[in-house]
Amino acid sequence: KPEFWRSKVKLTCPEKAKWFYKNEKVHNESDTYEFTYTSKGTYRCEYETNQKYYFYVEGNVCENCFELDGNTLFMVIVGDLLLTIIMMVIVYRCTKKKSPAGPPQPSKAPPRSGGRGPPVPSPDYE
Question: Are strands 41-46 and 8-21 parallel, antiparallel or unpaired?
Fold first, then answer.
């Protein structure tokens, strides 16, 4: 099975075998072969019983890249959603208008400007 990590490639066979690249032996007997990827090509591991496993390696590699699997991506999205919800609750609670403890008080009439009070009623109207 081939594995890519940045600019390295790792090929794995089920058991120890001889490794070949374009029909030239490249590695002693081992179940894995690691190399720096430079160009596409056909690799194979070959057992003494003439059983062969072929690998055609072609890909894009870069030194600062990494692979993001589905579980990691899912966890990042869920974490982002949770943090967003928490921030929304905090903002809502901080900006919520405080309600008074009791029933609303009616507003008082504005005071009259200073001066004299109302006239005294006439005794004729009593």
Answer: antiparallel
| Number of CB atoms found within 10 A of residue 81's CB | 10
| Residue 26, in any domain of the structure | yes
Q: Are 19 and 33 in contact (CB under 8 A)?
A: yes
pTM of the predicted model, to two decimals? 0.48
- Residue tagged 């390295």 (tokens): 8
Q: How many CB atoms lie within 10 A of CB 44?
A: 19
Q: What residue has token string 């006239």?
A: 119
29 lies in a domain?
A: yes
Q: Give me the amino acid identity at 40.
A: K
For 95-119, what is each residue's pLDDT tens digit?
Answer: 876 655 556 666 666 666 666 767 7
Asked if 3 contacts 9 with a C-beta cutoff of 8 angstroms, the reply is yes
Q: Which domain holds residue 23?
A: 2-57
Specify if 102 maps to a domain.
no
Q: Are residues 49 and 74 in the same domain?
A: no
